[in-house]
Amino acid sequence: MSDVHVFPTFDALSRSAAQHIAAHIQTVLREADTYALALAGGSTPERTYELLASGFPRIAWERVHIFWGDERFVPSSSARSNERMARRTLLSKIDVPFTNVHPIPTDAGSPSAAADRYDNHLRDVFADRDHTFDLTILGIGDDGHTASLFPGTRPDPTDADGTGIPDGRLVRAVEAPATYEVRDRITCTYRALNASTEVVFLASGEEKQQAVARARAGDPDVPAAHISPRHRLTWFLDPDAAGKEA
Ligand code: 6PG
Fold first, then answer.
1. Is residue 42 in contact with ligand 1, taking CB distance under 6 Å?
2. Which of 146, 153, 185, 235 has the most ligand 1 atoms within 8 A of CB, as the residue to mutate?
3. Is the C-beta atom of 177 inside 6 A of ligand 1?
4. Ligand 1 close to Cβ of residue 203 (< 6 A)
5. Whose CA is nearest to atom 10 of ligand 1?
6. Crossing angle between the packed helical segments 82-89 and 46-53, to the nearest 10 degrees
7. SS3 (DSSP) at 136
């Protein structure tokens, strides 16, 4: 089951998503020492990141660890880098310790080396807990992809019993379809994303409408339909992305 919120404007959508994320951080940090937030790439979350950085409500960034759900295999200085986008819109504006930032290492030599390194890193970081990210932000492509899980990929048979970090890969190197500008990608797997406590999907624009509808209907050919976090999945949509629900 998922919650769906539809907002009249993209700004209202972004504002509400930022408030939802900030509230979750505050709630979790009442009980836990640290919080793990996984960021999406693409352009939809940029405004949400700016609002998260704006300081209201106040977030204890010194206790928040930042990860990425996927990355393009480009240098972190590239205009195509998801890390660069997050540094520009969020990380450069907040007081988050350098050691709390966990980018996907695209300087690793090859996409598979980068994926291996990030996979090991996530296993180390999450070794002593029963879930991966506290909250994962995801976008959706008009073909239904999410993170860099493209159509044609299905989850591996699950070996997660809900009580610990799943076995099997948490991160993989993948190739995007030929229509994508950057084909070499590193992505968290369904296992890693579904071992998050919460997922927030952000989608805006008519070109997303069909993919959103198919994902929400559970169409197995749509990667986003396979996202099912441990506790809560929330969609933040504008009327164009929501279609007839608006
Ligand atoms: C990426 C992503 C990807 C993105 C969607 C939506 O690296 O491209 O993380 O899954 O979220 O493609 O992108 P837009 O927000 O730009 O539409």
1. yes
2. 146
3. no
4. no
5. 147
6. 40
7. strand
pLDDT above 50 for 20: yes
Whether the pLDDT of residue 3 is over 80: the answer is: yes
Buried-state track 185-204, b at ≥16 Cβ within 10 A, e below 16: bbbbbbbbbbbbbbbbbbbb
Nearest CA to ligand 1 atom 3: 147
Domains of the chain: 3-245 (3.40.50.1360)
* Interacting residues of 120 by C-beta distance below 8 A, sequence separation 6+: none
DSSP code per residue over 72-126:
ESS-TTSTT-HHHHHHHHTGGGS---GGGB----TTSSSHHHHHHHHHHHHHHHT
- Residues with Cβ within 8 Å of 194's Cβ and at least 6 positions away in sequence, in order, are 155, 158, 160, 226, 227, 228, 229, 230
pLDDT tens digits for range 47-88: 999 999 998 778 999 999 999 999 999 999 999 999 999 999
pLDDT band at 153 (very low <50, low <70, confident <90, very high): confident
What pLDDT does 159 receive? 47
Q: What is the CA radius of gyration of the chain?
A: 17
Q: How confident is the model at residue 161, as a pLDDT? A: 47
Q: Is the CB of 17 under 6 A from ligand 1?
A: no
The pLDDT tens digits for 154-207 are: 776 554 544 566 667 899 999 999 999 999 999 999 999 999 999 999 999 999
